[in-house]
Design goal:
By secondary structure, the chain is of the alpha+beta class. The protein is built from two helices and five strands, in the order βββααββ. It has helices at residues 46-49, 54-72, and strands at residues 5-9, 24-32, 39-45, 79-84, 89-93. β2 (24-32) and β3 (39-45) form a beta hairpin.
């Protein structure tokens, strides 16, 4: 079973699907952007988080999430949800808000 860890920006709801689990656990460790005050909470399957070798198994995915968050600083942390399952970090952006329709009559179309 691969270890799936999600990093969700503080103050935002998850945009993508959370890791498959009956119960989720938010880890005490948060990832902070070294260049600003953005923080991300780590969410993982509860059964995996209480495992004996979790610290060793989670070291590499957490390092990858840290790097993705640091690189996300360049686009003003528009990504509110990262997820990794080992080799690849997937980012979920919030859907853009629709622009108001400005027709010639001033009424919505």
């Amino acid at each position: 079973m691969s270890l799936v860890i999600a990093a969700i920006r503080t103050g935002h709801d998850p945009v993508g699907k959370l890791p498959d689990a009956a119960f989720h656990r938010t880890l005490e460790t948060q990832i902070n952007c070294p260049k600003c005050d953005a923080t991300y909470n780590l969410v993982v399957d509860y059964n995996v988080a209480i495992g004996r070798f979790f610290e060793e198994e989670s070291r590499r995915p957490i390092t990858m999430l840290r790097k993705a968050i640091m690189l996300g600083h360049g686009n003003d942390h528009r990504v509110a949800h990262f997820e990794t399952a080992g080799v690849v970090v997937v980012s979920f952006t919030t859907p853009p808000k629709p622009a108001p329709d400005k027709s010639a009559t001033g009424r919505p179309a």
